[in-house]
């Protein structure tokens, strides 16, 4: 009887893998194989453009890591990513607490929810066009700043090395905070009211309730969103490309645009592969930290 049951038990064990096999095959073909190919390309002199590429080891990595433009790119990406994540968190938490407040009427909260979530609805192309028009020297931003006396001349927000990085960071913050707001709002609504009532009985004020109840209860959500946001923001391409293209003079050059230009402007596909592998390593480190946090949370 044991021998007869073995085929059935084996079939039960294999059934989940049979269901997963189409997805696994697609992931291998569309993800794993391209990654392996790009890693292989990074060790040759210049693939695609050279019919007979020569193996040169880590020379491409050495050139990338010692390139001053790459150092500027690392700084821009770090500033862009850290600033975006921090302000996404602050603005998202502020708006979520406002929308969860009982001080506002239900209708008022519903209206503000629609308004606050609008930036998340727009595509990157619409956001880029919208802000390029508003930040134009003749745009509405300069107009109002001039009326209020903040500036006395027209500013090239996206065309000046002094302001371009701050401008694209602001745009990314504006377009990304609704993700935090919606997630944190759901988290706030999941906190038991009994905790706040017990704190009031113990004499806790609003600040103490926020620090010792709200933040600890939201911490798992905050950590998860921060990790994911770091990965997504570090790989941001479309918004940068459609607003500044990495300019002016590499002032807003990110790892993504730097790699793209190496491949499709300079046709240095091997160096572009090396840059892509470096981005992959950064992303995998963040993903590893995220998975560990998720396991600790579970």
TrEMBL record:
Alphabetized UniProt keyword annotations: Cell membrane, Membrane, Sugar transport, Transmembrane, Transmembrane helix, Transport
GO cellular component, one term: plasma membrane
Chief localization: membrane
Membrane topology: Multi-pass membrane protein
Pfam families: BPD_transp_1
Any one biological process term the GO annotation gives: transmembrane transport
Positions of transmembrane segments: 20-44, 78-99, 111-134, 164-186, 272-291
Residue ranges annotated for the ABC transmembrane type-1 domain, each copy included: 74-290
Compartments, as annotated in UniProt: Cell membrane
Signal peptide interval: none
Family that this chain belongs to: Belongs to the binding-protein-dependent transport system permease family.
Protein name as annotated: ABC-type sugar transport system, permease component
Organism: Flexilinea flocculi
Lineage: Bacteria, Bacillati, Chloroflexota, Anaerolineae, Anaerolineales
């Amino acid at each position: 009887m044991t021998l007869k049951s073995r085929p059935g038990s084996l079939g039960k064990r294999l059934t989940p893998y049979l269901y997963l096999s189409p997805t696994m095959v697609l992931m291998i073909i569309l993800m794993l194989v391209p990654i392996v190919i790009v890693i292989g390309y990074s060790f040759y002199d210049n693939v695609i453009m050279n019919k007979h590429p020569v193996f040169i080891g880590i020379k491409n990595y050495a050139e990338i890591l010692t390139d001053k433009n790459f150092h500027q790119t690392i700084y821009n990406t770090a500033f862009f990513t850290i600033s975006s994540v921090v302000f996404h968190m602050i603005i998202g938490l502020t708006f979520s607490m406002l929308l969860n407040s009982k001080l506002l009427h239900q209708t008022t909260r519903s209206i503000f929810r629609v308004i606050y979530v609008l930036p998340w609805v727009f595509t990157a192309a619409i956001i880029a066009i919208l802000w390029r028009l508003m930040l134009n020297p003749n745009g509405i931003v300069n107009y109002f700043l001039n009326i209020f006396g903040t500036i006395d001349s027209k500013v090239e927000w996206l065309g000046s090395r002094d302001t371009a990085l701050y401008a694209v960071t602001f745009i990314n913050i504006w377009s990304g905070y609704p993700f935090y707001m919606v997630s944190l709002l759901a988290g706030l609504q999941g906190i038991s009211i009994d905790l706040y009532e017990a704190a009031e009985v113990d004499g806790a004020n609003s600040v103490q309730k926020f620090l010792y109840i709200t933040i600890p209860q939201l911490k798992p959500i905050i950590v998860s969103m921060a990790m994911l946001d770091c990965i997504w923001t570090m790989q941001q391409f479309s918004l940068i490309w459609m607003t500044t293209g990495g300019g002016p003079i590499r002032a807003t050059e990110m790892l993504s645009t730097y790699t793209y230009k190496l491949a499709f402007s300079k046709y240095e596909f091997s160096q572009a592969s090396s840059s892509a592998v470096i981005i992959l390593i950064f992303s995998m480190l963040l993903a590893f930290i995220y998975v560990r946090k998720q396991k600790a949370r579970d």
